[in-house]
Sequence to fold (923 residues):
Amino acid sequence: MNTTYYRTRLVARAVWIYTILIAFSLVVLGPFLMGTLTSFKDNPLEYPPTLNLPKLGITNMGAAYRLGVAGGGGGFFGELHPGATVPFEVSVFTPKGQEVTPPTVQVLRLQPGAGIGAVRDPVYAADFSEVKDLKAVDTQDAQRPDREGKLVDGTITRYTLNVVYPSLTAQQGEKVRAKTPRTFSEDLQAVVDGQVVKVHLDTPEAQQQRINVPADTVVSLIKKDGQYYLDGPIILDRTPLNVELERGQQLTDSTLPPTKVERFGRANFFNNITPGVMGFTFNNYLRAFRESVDLETGNSIFLRWVGNSFLVAIVKVITSIAFASLAGYAFARLQFPGKNLLFVLVLFTMMVPMQVTFLSNFLLLRDGLWGLSKLFGLPNFFNPWGLVVSGLVGSAQVFLMKQFFESLPKELDEAAAIDGASAFQSFWHVTLPQTLPAIATLAITTFQGSWNDFFWPSVVVQNPATNLTLPVGLANFRQAYAGQGDYGLILAGAVISAIPIILLFLFFQRYFVENSVGSSVKG
Amino acid sequence: MLNTRVKASPKSPEKMRVRRDTLTAYAFLAPFLLTLLVFFFYGFVRAVYFSFTDYDLFNPPKFVGLKSYINIFQDDKFRIALTNTLLFSFVTTTLQTAGALLLAVVLNQRIRGLMFFRSAYYMPSITSSVVITLVFLWLFQKKGIANYLTTQFTQYTPHIVLFVVVLVVAQIIQVIFERLREAKNYVPEHREATSFDALARIRRVTYVHWSDPLLLWISAAIGGIAVLVASFMGWIQPRDVATFDFDWVYNTDKLFGLLPIPLLFIILMNTFTTIPTLMLFFLAGLQGIPTSLYEAAELDGATPGQKFWYVTVPQLQPVTFYAVTISLIGTLQMFDQVKVIGDAAPLDSIITLSYYIYNYSFRGGSSLAGMASAAAMILAVLTLLVVLVQRQFFKDEVNR
Fold:
């Protein structure tokens, strides 16, 4: 036996090990990767599943940008503004022997979304815009497979068209973005810079369209001589387009890929032809934010959930650092009667399941902690603040800090004490500066625990919807959207809620390891 | 001035210092103790009290003795919840511990660049259970990716079987060939050797092992080529199987008449997400075992199986026990997954003790907080039992 023999064996073994490691990480990350990729898809239920992601194509994103600009809302968020002309192109294959007929193109009147968004009073692009100037620009011979997969001769005709949203006023002047008031009134009004102003309808078209401008809608106004004229409502969500072909024809190309193709390629549906990059690629993410709105204020509820989660987590991190390091220091460094008994009690609290004490705590928060909530003008603590006051500091955190303090050398404290420092001075000036890694661990694990917490928040914050934290809200998304198979939006919400923790993890990996086994068990 | 000093001194400065220290300590502990008092001890005492009453959250509680405890044990829902919880806890803990241990043993080697893999393996454990449940609900739909992969797997079984068979046969032939070659070199000196093992023991040489990594790569390559050739020549074809569209979630069936399918779905999900982290944990434990133990075993002529059983397993026992305890406690309190799945699955198939407690506390209109509290006591007792067993075990460990 020689060294070459062993070396080749070692290399072969290492290659096996790394192959298994890589395969296993792919398996572990697979569900998350697939979920993330699918959150970009229009059809999350695609079967058989593919990795075909037109939404991440550079050409498509460029087209989405240009269409967003053409719609008037800009290349990122894309809206349809009055006065806009949006050019669009479709190419249609017609087999030989069949008459080349132009497609029927229509702006659709479509209810936006499912779930919480469906109750909103929408503005329909179809009410204000129409398809114009549909014409064939060129034709070329081509071969395409038909439905059975056989190649067929024929021609591809390229058509251009415009979706036009004419302005509703004859006036020229400065464009002003405003919102109609929250209550519907016969005379059209709008809120400009906090002032309610009268809006003039100077054309018959504008008067006709009055009924299609609901309350609480973003509108474009023309300001002239101190008077406001209705230019038209701004269509925020989408401009849906349908391209209908004759039997046998196929759509071969279009400015944007169609969202849905039905009836063997005859009905080609475009969810939004003025999306902008965000509205195209991150459509499900925008929907998560836009579709769930507070019916009273019109603000995004999802944004509130994110905010609530951050608020609770950050406040809990601060209070935990303060109280857990004080208590941990007392347990680790100070001598006092009852210390051992107290510490046994602390250990005991860590063993008792949350499900034992939650009912009493629920009642405490219901009564606002003996009326304490009234000081803050809250009838009870069934809101994010309730999560904060009930979770200022926990036994596990105190335990963590005690362990850290005990691992530090005692001599410095003793030297400080001989110099006449008080316990607090020695804690503050001597011990605490040495425990920054411990505090980082504490902060990160507390943040993670609070951000992912589900049981206690689902007891405390249920109503109104603006009080929820992100995990509780996501669970509600499941109820609202999973029934219709609208998993794109659910997955987008899940990705958003996972991002802060993943970022934290990537930057501060070593602080997670301390706590990993406990939190790895998904109980 | 002098007087006051004299007055104070009989109490001794030592005692003064102790009193001052005590005050400081309790001042430091005050915020924590206050939180604990209000949100734990008060809650704990009240929960015990509620479990002996007929409390319903609205009317003042009335003492009813052990009636709530009798009621829950006569309640079908509770019995189902208890069975589900114990089943879930036992199966999940077994699967994830065994899986993680196996994987760790396979991978046990000094691995460079472990940091990168570690990030990947920690990912499921840092993500919230709500996110994981949502992703898995999507994966395990009737026409979801999990079922799609199962369909693919059954379609390509001929290919997989052929690959494995060729790989094994090729490996056996190669190893025998190699050993014969080695034997030819050594036998003249050691005619008394009756087997390769005996030979190896006498010569103290490593002979080609059945799982020799280099030969295994060659065998894998041969297997791969065999599959390519066979499918190119049309000798094997994907089987024509129906699309697998099993409903994992809305399903009232039970595996072996015992384990509800939706609960199995949660078990699969939790096992999948926990194995990687536990694996890292075991890997650390494995690398802490002194190599001298293995060397000693080798000198005594232990086989790899014996080394695993008599060195690895006992050395890893504390780690295993800790992992099992943590896992049991976590799974006994499983709640999040049940709540997120909610009405997507039949309640009886997924209800656990935690969810029972939650559900009975807040049933629309008629809260049964008394019964819920009694169930909470049962859950607490179960958890404490696990902890006590662990304590006992570690005491033994220290004494040994």
Summary: Chain A touches chain B through 105 residues (CB under 8 Å). The first strand of chain A starts at residue 85 and ends at 95. Chain A has a mean pLDDT of 86. The radius of gyration of chain A is 31 Å.
